[in-house]
Amino acid sequence: MNQTELDAEALYTQLELAVGAGLAGTSRLAIVGIYSGGAWIAERLATSLGIADLGYVDVSFYRDDYAERGLHAEVRPSQIPFDVEGATILLVDDVLYTGRTTRAAINTLFDYGRPARVMLAALVDRGGRQLPVAPDFVAKTITLADDQQLVLQKSDDGLFSLTIDHA
Amino acid sequence: MHNPQLNKNGELQHLITLEGLPPAVITRILDTAASFVSVGDREVKKVPLMRGKSVFNLFFENSTRTRTTFEIASKRLSADVINLNISASSASKGESLLDTIDNLAAMHADMFVVRHAQSGAPYLIARHLTETNQDHVHVVNAGDGRHAHPTQGLLDMYTIRHYKKDFRNLTVAIVGDILHSRVARSDIHGLTTLGVPEVRAIGPRTLLPGGLEQMGVRVFNDMNEGLKGVDVIIMLRLQNERMNGALLPSAQEYFKSYGLTPERLALAKSDAIVMHPGPMNRGVEIDSAVADGAQAVILPQVTFGIAVRMAVMSILAGS
Questions:
Q1: CA A15 remoteness from chain centre
Q2: Which residues of B, range 48-67, sit inside 8 Å of A by Cβ?
Q3: CA B99, B100, B105, B108: dihedral to nearest 10 degrees?
Q4: pTM higher than 0.95 for the full model?
C-alpha cells in the first residue's frame, strides 16, 4: 500500500464546491452514495449542502460479474428513503473506473421509480472506462495501471485519505 | 470431517441441513437476507441476479406453502422456475429419483429445490451430482422426512435476530410435536450454533424424541414450567394424523395441556415473541387471541422467509 500525493480532503472540498455551485436551486434534489466510499462522501455532501434526501445503494444484486465471482460477501441493504419518481438524483462514488458500478447503481435506482434526472459525482476519475459513462462532477482525473487500485479510507474523525494498492 | 454442503473453498455448495454449518456461513445468509428484505419494499421487487438460471422445484411430498415461497423467491431473483409435483409412489424410489435428477440436469437445471418424505433424499441427490461431476448444480433441502428443514430454520433465526438482536442471552422454547418435526431439529441446530445459551423443548413424552439433552436442550413436560422467563416461543403445528394413533387422546386434551393461551404466554418474559411455522391449527396448539395478538410475529416470519430463501439461492448459485 502506498500513500499517494492525492490529498483526499482537498479533493473533497473541491468536489463539494463544484456540486454546490452546479446544483444550487435544483428542485427535488437527492443524493445517493454507492457503498462504501461513495456513501461516506454522499453523507458529507448532504450535511454540508443541506440536502435532506439522502440514500445509499449497494450494487451487489446488479453486478455483471455475479456469474464469475458470485455474490459479494458483504451486502448491505440499499436505503432510498425518498420518492425516486421525478427526483433529480446525484449519484456519488469515490473512484470512477470502468463505469460498471455506475451502470449497476443506475439500474438499482430505476427499480425504485423513474427519476427525472440522474447525475454522477466522483472524487477521482482514474480512466479505463468500459462503458459510455461520464461524470458530471469530478475533483481529479488521473491515469492508473490496471493492476493498481485506488482506495478511499475514512479515519475515526471522519477525514478522507486515498491509497494505492497493487493487485 | 469435510462438510458435504461446502465446496473446497469453504463456500456453501448445497443447503441440506444446518447441522455442522459454521456460524459464519449462517450469519452471512442472515446478513444477505436483510438486503433482500429491503428489496421487497420497493416498487420493483425483482433483482437480476439469477437471470438465465433455471430452478426446479421438486416436490415429492405436497406443500403448497413452501413451494410457493421458493417460487416467489426464485422469481424475485429473476430465475426461471419449473414446478414438478412428483408422486413418491414408485416402488424403486432410490433409482428412479436419481434418474429423474439426471434427466432434469440434462435440461440444464442450475438448482434443485427438493421436498421429500424420506429423510436423506436431498443429500442423496447432492452426492449423486458430485459423483457424476455435476457440481455446478445446487441442491436446497425444502424439508426431508423428519430430518431437516434448513430454510425454515434460517428464517426462524432471522426472525429472532430481527426482534431480539443478540442470540447470546436468550432463552428459546420450542413447543409441541418435536418428535416428528424437521423444523424443530433445524431450529435447535441453528440456535445452538448461533450461541443461544438455553434451548427448551416442551411437549408430552410421546412427542419428544430421545437424545434432546445430548443436543444441549432442556426438556419440559409441563408447559407452564417450561415457559417461565423465555424470550422466544416457537410453536409447532400438531399434525392431525397424530391424533389417530396412540400418541395423543384428542385435540381438546392437547390444547388443555399444550395450547398457547394468553394466560400461559404471560409466564414468558413480557416482551417475548411468539413464532409458528404455519399452517396453524387454532384451538389446538395456539389460541386465536395469541395468534392474532401483539406478541405474535407469525406473518413477519412469512415475509422474512422469502428474503432468506433469496439469500440462500443467490449465495449457492454464485458459489
A1: 12
A2: 48-49
A3: 140
A4: no
